[in-house]
Amino acid sequence: MHKGRTYIVTGVTSGIGAETCQALKSSGAKVIGVDRNKTDIADEFYLADLSEPDSIADLIECLPEGANGLANIAGLPPTAPADLLMKVNLIGLRDFTNGVVDKLADGASIVNIASLAGFGWPDAMTQVKEALALEFSSDVTGFCAANKLDEGGRSYFLSKEALIVWTMQNRWTWRDRGIRMNTVSPGPVETPILKDFLETLGKRAEEDAKVMDRPGLPSDIAPVVSFLLSEGSGWIRGSNIATDGGMSSHIMSEVHQF
Predict the structure, then answer these.
(1) Helices in 133-180 by DSSP H: which ranges?
(2) Where are the domains of the chain?
(3) pLDDT per residue over 1-45, tens digit each?
(4) Count of CB atoms situated within 10 Å of the CB of 72
(5) Could you tell me which residues come within 8 angstroms of residue 26 by beta carbon, excluding any fewer than 6 positions away?
(6) Contacts of 200 (CB under 8 A, 6+ apart)
(7) What gap in Å lies between CA 89 and CA 156, rounded to an integer?
(8) Phi/psi at 217 (5° precision)
(9) Residue pair 201/193 in contact by the 8 Å Cβ criterion
């Protein structure tokens, strides 16, 4: 499916990023990995910190031209400081994507890892719009304090809500070059940061666990990312693919009582 193609994968060292890298390579692709921690899993690797604009600029300059897709998988868990989380999960991801688009091949696909935590974006649009207006030069710390984003993992929820909305907004931004963008929203997944979610969400996570038959695995998510990167997904634009074992459907059933 990916023979002869090249993809950039951020957060490649562990979890969903590592599994996606392996899935793409096994399908014949070359993978350019990006992470703040070194690894030899990718065919080519670049060390970068997506919370720092200078690091992002250096990364964009170093990356080769002609990649057929980008998987934005790097992210921080809800236990991280709110301002740092917003910089990595939203501002850095957005700035890196916008900056690297010119280097992507025509017809490329961009896949952003959102989350079931972004499910409530329609009810949070005022805050989402404010978050999307943030730049690295903004008072991100002040924004987080004013919106109490350090409480109950709200920073994580907002970052994913905003990411889903940003992806929808940009469904046709690069259509003249055939470049499309979508999101994948996993539910709870067995990765090194699962314990951070359980620690932050407390009773909410316990209730989810009672409903779900099991947590997801990186191997449940990687094939969906792989498909969205492939030419076979060319007519999917601005979509959010829930990959959560049915949890979002459960929530909708509860909300609408059907």
Answers:
(1) 140-146, 154-169
(2) 6-248
(3) 899 999 999 999 999 999 999 999 999 999 999 999 999 999 999
(4) 29
(5) none
(6) 77, 78, 79, 152, 153, 156
(7) 8
(8) -120, 155
(9) no
- Work out the number of other CB atoms within 10 angstroms of the CB of residue 10: 28
CA distance 225 to 6: 14
What kind of architecture, by CATH, is found in domain 6-248? 3-Layer(aba) Sandwich (3.40)
The tokens 């057929």 sit on which residue?
68
pTM assigned to the model: 0.94
CA atoms within 13 Å, Cβ hemisphere of 244:
25
Residue 112 · residue 93 · CB < 8 Å: yes
The token pair at 46 is 């670049």
Q: Take residue 219 and report the two structure tokens written for it.
A: 């191997």
Q: What is the DSSP string of 73-86?
A: -----TTS-HHHHH
The CA-atom distances, in angstroms, between 240 and each of 54, 118, 165 are 30, 10, 9
- Of 87, 155, 159, 161, the closest CA to residue 120 belongs to 161
